[in-house]
Amino acid sequence: MEENKVETALVINQKIATMTGYTREEVGVVKNTIAKGTTDTELAYFLNVCKAVKLNPFLKQIWCFKDKRGNLLIFAGRDGYLEIAQRDTRWTGMASSYVCEKDKFEMNVTDGTVSHSYGIDRGKLIG
After folding, report:
1. Which of 8, 52, 94, 102 maximizes the CB count within 10 A of its CB?
2. Would residue 108 be called left, alpha or beta, if left means φ above 0 and alpha means ψ between -120 and 50 degrees?
3. CA distances from 4 to 73, 84, 96 (A)
4. What gap in Å lies between CA 59 and CA 88, rounded to an integer?
5. 74 has which bridge partners?
6. Per residue in 58-80, is it b (16+ CB within 10 Å) or e — as a string?
7. C-alpha angle with apex 55: 54 to 57, nearest 5 degrees?
């Protein structure tokens, strides 16, 4: 009886793999980790969304889960948005820094300007 369940799962995973371009083993890994608790139909849908938007669930660019009402929710994470941004020819990169309590930091959201200066003794990290 247990063998039949395993065989059926392998056949279903192979069908999903054929449909989505993942290997049967990858489908099994996603089913048991990233998309835990999804039905086979939901799993196939999720993997097709991954393929359509060219995001990799193994790199934590995209994931899904089921809410308390049983709805399938699909999310793109920071790495997913960054991946999408980097595909755009207009992308020129991003700059980041941190602010300490003794830094002089000013940001004008309206015109997009940032002024940040600091000395040697910066104090505690605050942002």
Report:
1. 102
2. beta
3. 31, 42, 54
4. 20
5. 64
6. eeebbbbeeeeeeebebebeeeb
7. 140
Residues in the chain: 127
Residue matched to tokens 């959201």? 109
Q: Supply the pTM of this predicted model.
A: 0.72
In angstroms, rounded to a whole number, what is the distance separating the alpha carbons of residues 41 and 95?
Answer: 41
Q: Which residue, among 8, 56, 52, 57, has the nearest Cα to 33 in the 3D structure?
A: 57
State CA 24 to chain mean position distance. Answer: 21
- For 17-65, what is each residue's pLDDT tens digit? 888 889 999 999 999 999 999 999 999 999 999 999 999 999 999 999 9
* Rounded to 5°, angle at Cα 33 from 28 and 39: 65
